Amino acid sequence: MIDVVVAGTLDVYTTCSFDTAGTVTNAAGTVNHTDDNSGTGQNFLISFEAEPDTYYITVEGDGAAIGDYTLHVDFEPSNDDDPGEDDHGDTEDTATEIFSDAHNWVYAIVGFVDDDDDIDVFQLELAHRTKLTIHTAGEMEIAGSFTNSEDEEIWENEDTDDDNLNFMLSTIVDAGIYYLYISGAVTEEKSQYELKIETDVYLYVDDEFEGTIFTDSDKDYYYHETDREGMIEIYTTGTVDTIGAVTNAAGTVNLTDDNSGTDENFLISFLAEPGTYYIEVDSSSDSTGDYTLHVEFGPSTDDDHGDTEDTATVIEPNSSTSGKIEEGDDIDYFEIEIPRAGDLTVYTRGGLDTIGTVTNEDGTVEETDDDSGTSSNFSISLEISAGTYFVKVESWGDSTGSYTLYSEFKVDYSVPAPAVPDPEVSETTISSDADAWDYETTSVIASEEENIYKIVLSHRTQLTLYTTGETDTAGILKDADEDEIQSHDNISTSDDPAEENLNFMISEVVEAGSYYLHVSGDVEDKSQYTLKIEADVEDLESVAQSP
Fold first, then answer.
1. How are beta strands 130-137 and 168-173 bridged, if at all?
2. How far apart are alpha carbons 332 and 309 in whole angstroms?
3. How far apart are CA 2 and CA 204, in angstroms?
4. pTM over 0.90
5. If we measure between CA atoms, which residue out of 72, 78, 41, 75 comes closest to residue 59?
6. Which residues of 215-224 are buried (b: 16+ CB within 10 A; e: fewer)?
7. CB neighbours (10 Å) of residue 70?
8. Rounded to an integer, what distance in angstroms lies between the CA atom of residue 403 and that of residue 396?
């Protein structure tokens, strides 16, 4: 949205690497300008003589084009004369209202100060906690002040006698209504100023924000600052298949992730230095809908990762983890649980000269490397069997600094999966006394065997159990006496497994007590599956009211 208060030439255009199309309209419907490729490259450019009015800009990718773009709005007044009447009200009741519920938006306007007693008042209604930047430009000496809805002053700049004619305000404010007051030192030649307001959704530490991906090309951006070193974990929850990216103002952080979080949500965790960070939330494929963004921060302790196998940080076989060698003799240990035979590659990236060592719990594996990776980073690749492995990261000499450890694992399906031990002694026990909880694990299954999970419930519960993955699985839920409660078998009988759902789902209301879930599968090329368990006491209200 653009407010034009005097007649002039309005130029609206994009710059980017893909094909854009643009439209400019007004509320009355008397203006409707469209363009495709009049700008540089395949960008649109719309230029027209604009009368005082409010204009709306629509930007689209031409055809199936998607990507990031920069929108430019340039305005040149027809002359520098005062518009002849007060362009913006002098009080809060007559203030020019500015509002948008978008995560990030920009407002630009050309205004006039009629005389030394004239004040232009703008009402800003912010839908979210916001990083707010307000600044003016021009050759007129400008003063400004900023208050909240209770008329409490947040910021003021009354100095119109210094060499800097314009002001800039940058602050963080909560959602609500605020007022901006602009005045100036008017001369016969100078009474015009340009005002620009920029916003970014601001997230505090241990904060969360409800967002929505409306289309497959929609992206949301957030802003976060930290004044201390520590581990930051940024992730989403919800039904959208999200992709996340985190960068910093210094250009030294550029992290992306797709599905490391729960379900198909992203999760990015890294050791953050004090500074400004930018968060981008995108969706995979055509996934749209609501999500919740979480930002969690833990101040840095004396050591980010343990110095021994007993204090090792547990990581997933496919993951990335930030670390820091605090002192020259610091050592960081990581533990990886490998479900079956396959190829494991671990390596670091960053400016630190790292040395890596991979060992296993049995003491039969020990591989060390110094500089086989990029720059002076280590890289180790080896064929391994199922078991517990440890990665030790240290630095060469007395060097210190940050690094990112990457672990990549591929199952070797030519090697049979390990046999499942006697179910009576090998069952996995899952319990929680919370009213609502989720559990997720990735497991492998051997041919003609089954995995057994013991589920201990403290309350009467709506229990939902299901699998995901490419392995045909079947499930049976039994009570403590091994009497079957419910079973579900969607194992495909077709030559084309994609024609049927390979996974099972069981949903049942059960009383407090112990239950057993038996998982079996049709093991051929695939033997890995993910089991998800959802338990919720609150779901029982509607069940209890049923006849």
1. antiparallel
2. 9
3. 30
4. no
5. 72
6. eeeebbebbb
7. 9
8. 13
| Secondary structure tally for the chain: helices H, strands E | 2, 42
Dmax over CA atoms of the chain, in Å, equals 95
Contact 486, 508 (CB under 8 A): yes
CATH number at residue 324: 2.60.120.380
| One domain for residues 486 and 539 | yes
Domain limits for position 387: 313-411
Number of other residues whose CB lies within 10 A of the CB of residue 139:
13
Dist. CA 195–CA 109, nearest whole Å:
5
- As given in the structure block, the two tokens for residue 180 are 């901006």
Same domain, 351 and 368: yes
DSSP letters, 6-35, are: S-EEEEEEEESSS-EEEEEEETTS--EEEE
Q: What are phi and psi of 539, to 5 degrees?
A: -70, -10
Residue 447 predicted with pLDDT over 90: no
Rounded CA-CA distance 351/354 in Å is 9
The alpha carbon of residue 125 and the mean position of all alpha carbons in its chain are separated, in whole angstroms, by 25
Q: With beta carbons less than 8 A apart as the criterion, state whether 541 and 509 touch.
A: no
For residue 411, the tally of other CB atoms under 10 A from its CB is: 18
CA dihedral 148, 154, 160, 165 (to 10 degrees): -90
Query: Looking at the predicted structure, is the pLDDT value of residue 197 above 70?
Result: yes
Total number of domains in the chain: 4
Q: How far apart are CA 180 and CA 177, in angstroms?
A: 10
Whose tokens are 């090998």? That residue is 426
Question: Using an 8 Å Cβ cutoff, are 158 and 167 in contact?
Answer: no
Element (H, E) at 262: none
**Measured distance CA(515)–CA(209) in Å, rounded:** 37
For residue 498, pLDDT over 50 is answered with no
Q: Is residue 102 part of a domain?
A: yes
Instruction: Specify the DSSP class assigned to residue 81.
Output: S
Containing 423, the helix (H) or strand (E) segment is helix 423-426
The answer to whether residue 540 is domain-embedded is yes
According to DSSP, the β-strands at 313-315 and 332-338 are parallel
C-alpha neighbours within 13 Å on the C-beta side of residue 382: 20
Verify that 165 and 22 share a domain, yes or no: yes
Read off the pLDDT of residues 371-423 as tens digits, 9 standing for 90 and up. Answer: 898 888 999 999 999 999 999 999 998 888 888 899 999 988 787 766 544 44
Compute the distance between CA of residue 298 and CA of residue 65 in angstroms, rounded to an integer. Answer: 40
Structure tokens at 279: 């968060």
- In the three-class reduction of DSSP (H, G, I as helix; E, B as strand; rest coil), residue 497 is classed as helix
Distance CA 10, CA 7 (A): 9
Whether the Cβ atoms of residue 154 and residue 146 lie closer than 8 Å to each other: yes
Give the separation between CA 535 and CA 436, rounded to whole angstroms: 5
Adjacent-strand bridge partners of 439: 533
